Amino acid sequence: MSRSRATKGSETAAVRRGQLNRETGNDGLGIRKTYKLYVGGEFIRTESGRADPVEAARGGFLANISRGSRKDLREAVRKARAAQPAWAARSAYNKGQILYRMAEMLEGRVDGFEKLLRDSRGSTAAAARREVRASIDRFVHYAGWSDKFTALLGTVNPVASSYFDFSVPEPMGVVGIVAPNAPDLLGLVTHLAPVLVAGNTAVVLVSEKHPLASLELAEVLATSDLPGGVANLISGRREELVPHLARHMDVQAIADAGGDPGVSKLLAQDAAVNVKRVRRYDLRDYESDDAQGLDFIEAFVEIKTTWHPIGV
Amino acid sequence: MSTITSLFDLSRVPPVDQVGIDERSAGLARRSIKKEAKRAGIRLAISMLDLTTLEGKDSEGKVRQLCRKAIRPFPEDATVPHVAAICVYPNFVAIAKDALAGSGVKVASVATGFPAGQVPLPVKLDDTRRAVNAGADEIDMVIDRGAFLSGEYDRVVDEILAVKEACGAAHLKVILETGELETYDNVRRASDLAMAAGADFIKTSTGKVTPAATAPVVLVMLEAIRDHYLATGRRVGMKPAGGIKTSKQALHLLVLVKETLGDAWLTPDLFRIGASTLANDLLMQLAKESSGRYQNEDYFTKD
Amino acid sequence: MATEIDERAARKAAITKFEAERPRIEFGSAWEYSPAPEAADIVRIQKRENLFIDGKFVPARSGRVFETINPPTAEVLSEVAEGGAADIDAAVRAAEEAHRKRWSKLKPAERGKYIYRLARLMQEKSRELAVLETINGGKPIKESRDVDVPLAIAHFFYHAGWADKLEYAFPRHRVSSIGVCGQIIPWNFPLLMAAWKIAPALAAGNTVVLKPAETTPLTSLALARICQEADLPPGVVNIVPGAGETGAQLVNHPRVRKVAFTGSTDVGKLIQRAIAGSGKRLSLELGGKAANIVFEDAAIDQAVEGIVNGIYFNQGHVCCAGSRLLVQESVAEKVIQKLKLRIETLRVGDPMDKNTDVGAINSRMQLDRIRELVACGVEEGARLHQSSCAIPAKGFFFPPTFFSEVAQSHRIAREEIFGPVLAVMTFRTPDEAVEKANNIPYGLSAGVWTDKGSKVFQITAKMRAGVVWANTFNKFDPASPFGGYKESGFGREGGVHGLRAYVELS
Questions:
Q1: How many Å apart are CA C363 and CA C396, to the nearest integer?
Q2: In chain A, how many H helices and how many E strands?
């Protein structure tokens, strides 16, 4: 079979009809991929049996995604909870290695991610390239923080009695992340990496509008030595999922970068059920160096102060 | 190897937290002892005194004068009780016994190569027997701190057992010399060991080493006595000695006893204070309480 | 068969005999302490106390007043103006103007000097403040004199020094103040909590409107007088007494930029919900049900002191109180025996007596709640132990109490009693201890008692609590961050971490 030399316009039309495999441009019947949820280190279909089609930026069918349900969310929190102590107990050095591994695995799939950003969000080639590069750099940035933030956020406190008194950051536990709709890939990495490096496990509601790159990132996570359950990615509809995340009694904190003030307000109200820590983010420029750093880690640690007598 | 050593189970000696003991002791030092409580406390403290002279220059004259003080500490006030005992070197036991005859004041003698205890065991036993034969009611022995600190607990126990035997009917006070033991853990361990070996009293210090009877050390020993009593039913007495100079210190010690061991120990039979100059401060405070005037030391006899 | 029964009967008889002859320690009257009342005449309480707004004492626009009492006698000490919506509004506006025009423009070092001045003035009035705290709150004078007041002063001294060093605390950031802080404090440590709130807020350049608790407004108002005496610019500190309604008005006032609350978890959640989406900053210091874990290798006597300090300090009206005791089974009997002895020596009574260890319960309402939960503990089958100490016939008092044979599921093991009542449970292994200690929605504090260093580090690290005391309990210091995990709130007070709650970083 000869390789199609169809014009761009007719190719798009063919893709829309589902007749053309957009990967190869072959005339053969395309495989319509359904992206699954990433929960507990496994790729699972939603228990609800629902899927939503995702359109390409320029129109037309791109792929199906699972429309995650509250039960999927519950399962994700359960897995995140189960994985948290062991993840936190790993050495800082090891956590740093794993984050660096994520960068490596992403680096190996740069082309695919760039294409996905172009197709799904309509990013220009240059913008897609910048975003993927920035995502890799962000993982590298936080990989390096792993064995350093404790020294910067911890203190030895000079109390006026015969005690050794020190404060150290500890993970909060399970952190919910409402990722921004865009930039979907860099936004996810920006909020996920600091949460993980602090020793938390995460349940992420990925970009509702552009979920594909995030779900694709799950494949990076799955192959980068990150233990199952440490990061869980759920696609689906915000209005359906956010209240359950916000009210979940086993979620200790939420990074809310969803960008919708109405949803954020409801989230913040619901979060009071178990005194969740909520950090709202409204970042203008995710590629900027201001979108990373110690503050992002500090937001998801608890400070524990320990006292011990000094004597013989 | 003594049989008692196996009774002294080192693993059952509890650890002592230094900061915790210091804080508890300091907390009890803040008890406010005023008015009637102060007067009663001072009288009680006087009745618990082991009036002590342990000097190279001690003489018959000095000892006889001290005995007069022991019998009537405050000639101006007949209601002030006599002290519990006179504490002297073995050479002066017979003299003290004579001077105190019929007074109710007991004679305690240091023995066993006081204060260092660095003489052979037969000498220690001989020292003890001679003091007892001379009429001592009580023997204040020193433990071999060198042996204790090098972990030779058997030896320490054996010596106490042997001295106890040599005491016969005389009461045995075992001096730990806490200033040389340094840590509260050691004080606790030595206390338990001495009690297991049959001490009638445990005593902090010789008075020749500082620090001596600090309040936290006394508290550690009182807690050991309490635990020994709860475990065995036997009441061991306590004698802080060394560095106790003021009424305030003495009252603080009584507070420690009251709130650790309770009423049963608030008697000269089970609590003594070894001191030489404390008596006058107690008397001055007593005079101040009754007169409302601050006192001058020349109104009180220095013996 | 018959022999077996005989043996068992003989063993039982032997145990009974042993129990009967068991050595007993009596804490009686061989030598009694005389009454040692602290002189009360150092304070003159005004019959009528007003609100402190914009540097002046003013009657409430609401026209309402409430009575504040001396808990042990229920004697009315003063009629206190109760802030209403208009008063809160006036206070917030005064604070906002003071922030805009004066306090945020002041050179940081000068700001620090004002705070030093407050600290020094408090020091000079420490006796008066201690007496006032005890009269209005019912806590023993020993504690207000040796703990509350010195710590409150230390908080001002500590934070004064931060005023011109904030950039060092937050490197790579531009540090600015937030604005008006609405602060609500409880009745258990009235002056100390006011210090914890006001000192860091002022150091960071904010101004405050503070609402003291309804039952204990007097030391906050005394602090207001000190602010006047220190010539603190008007409006920088405003004190508006009142109850829950006043607090709600403060929290919801649109010009309040930061809310700091210490109190119950229920109210904390209401506040978190109320200000959701408003952009207001929030720090919460809420309830607790701390576990004190005693391992068999602990220094038992000091552990018992820690347990006593943990639960009977301030009548147990302490959010971080060690209200659950987890003791290893091998030493449980010994610990309980010692605890029983120890509570016999606690002196319950007149808070003004310098030898009183446990003072008056703060209010009738609180006393009723304690009684209810203790009755519940008895009903649920736990074994009650109470000190036989004499309790004053008048006033609100409750004897030092603990329950043994408590199960995790008992109400007394799960609910914050906020009184001198301890629930004792046992465990067998370290894992079990950790699991039980963390098995509670709160996470404010915890205690760990062991003589083994490596165990200290592992077990303290496993506690899901913001403050962990190892081989000690209930220690506080302005340099040491304090605050909770989980439903015990968020944000820290004290130390570098405490400053974070009062600065805006960019």
A1: 7
A2: 11, 13
Strands C503-505 and B201-203: unpaired
ipTM: 0.94
Q: Where are the beta strands (DSSP E) in B13-53?
A: 49-52
**Active-site choice (B140, B192, B200, B303):** B140
- Tokens at C490, concatenated: 């968020």
Which residues, listed in sequence order, are joined to residue C283 by a DSSP beta bridge?
A: C260
Region label for B93, one of left (φ > 0), alpha (ψ between -120 and 50) or beta (otherwise): alpha
Active site residue B140: yes
What are the tens digits of pLDDT across the range C179-217? 999 999 999 999 999 999 999 999 999 999 999 999 999
Minimal CA–CA distance to C305: which of A175, B21, B155, A271? Answer: B21
Greatest distance between any 2 Cα atoms in chain B = 60
Q: Which residues pair with C285 in a beta bridge?
A: C262
**Tokens matching residue C207:** 């101004």
Give the tokens for residue A65: 């995604």
Segment holding C85, helix H or strand E: helix C85-98
The separation between the first and the last C-alpha atoms of chain A, rounded to the nearest angstrom, is: 86
For C334-394, strand residue ranges (E) read 383-386
Helix, strand, coil abundance in chain A, percent, nearest 5? 45, 20, 35
Which chain B residues touch C31 with a CB distance below 8 Å? Answer: 37, 40-41, 44, 254, 258, 263, 266
Query: Quick one: which of C229, C248, C52, C215 has its CA closest to C137?
Result: C215
Closest residue on chain A to B185 (Cα): A312
Q: Give the CA-trace dihedral at B192, B196, B199, B201, to 10 degrees.
A: 40
Which chain C residue's Cα is nearest to A156? C480
Task: Quick: pLDDT tens for C426-459.
Answer: 999 999 999 999 999 999 999 999 999 999 999 9
Torsion of the alpha carbons at A88, A91, A92 and A94, rounded to the nearest 10: -110
Determine, for residues B266 and C31 on separate chains, whether the beta-carbon distance falls below 8 Å: yes
Q: Is A52 helix (H, G, I), strand (E, B) or coil?
A: strand
